[in-house]
Amino acid sequence: MRLRAAVGDLRQLLAAEVRAGERAAMSAIRVETDQVKGELRQQVTGSLGGNARGIANAWRSQIFPRTGQSLRPAGLVWTKVPAIIDAFERGAVIRAKGGRKFLAIPTGFNAARGRRGRGEKGMRVTPAQMVASGQAFLRPFKSRRGFVWCLPLYEAQGIGRGRRRGRRTQLIAGGVAEIGTGNRQGREAWARGMLERGMVPMFLLLPQVTLTKRLDVKGAAERGLRRLPGRFVAAWERESGRVA
């Protein structure tokens, strides 16, 4: 009778320990997966700047099993933009495709801001529009390794909303799109200076671009794996009540 009671108690104790282990395993995987994802997001914003928040937030995670508990859970971290992440992790060389000689890289003047002027891939003016305008022209780099693809710059005539907007100098690139629409301090002097130059650079044409290695995805994963056993043991002790 005593032996049966002891075995019964042992089974209950083991079952409770298994349940504690399952909760601990799920907790450790969940916390560590979130930490790896957070580290990868920080790598992107730290290396590529605040404008890369969209790329950073493309890191996602999932825990398996999705419901219930398990002693063998798994955590998955992935990105919705794998090509971009791979390029910055390897330090890839990007070349023009489809028989083209140059990559067309939009300048800051050609970047869409807010909802205004949003075109293909966030550009105010696309390469196709540059060609169709019949006004685009090239200026070679001093190094002769590429070109600046420009449009002539005009002052908009008869355009304005309200007295304040009507007094502002509005710049139109090649009759295609307005640029420099911000209300920053010194904007009028800047706009007049641009008009004196008579042109605005819209694209940089380069045969290839070499990206520096800025991300360490493998390192983040390996650091997470090294932390996981200790995190699991600590969580199991908490779940089983062996520590306060």
What does this structure look like?
The structure is a single chain. This protein has 244 residues and is of the alpha+beta class. The chain has helices at 2-48, 53-57, 82-90, 127-133, 162-167, 187-197, 217-240; strands spanning 59-64, 74-79, 93-95, 103-106, 137-140, 147-155, 171-173, 177-179, 199-206, 208-210. It has 2 domains: 2-91 and 213-240, no CATH class; 93-210, no CATH class. It has 7 helices and 10 strands. A hairpin with a 3-residue loop joins strand 7 and strand 8. Residues 114-118 and 160-164 have low confidence and may be disordered.
Considering the chains and any ligands shown, give keywords for the structure.
single chain; 244 residues; alpha+beta; 7 helices
Question: Helical content, roughly?
Answer: 40-55%
Oligomer: single chain
Strand percent estimate = 15-25%
* Mean pLDDT across all amino acids: 85
Give the low-confidence spans: 114-118, 160-164
- Major sheet details: 6 strands, antiparallel
Q: Indicate the structural class.
A: alpha+beta
* Whole-angstrom Rg: 29 Å
Instruction: Output the number of helix runs.
Output: 7
Note the gap between the termini. 35 Å
InterPro entries: DUF6441
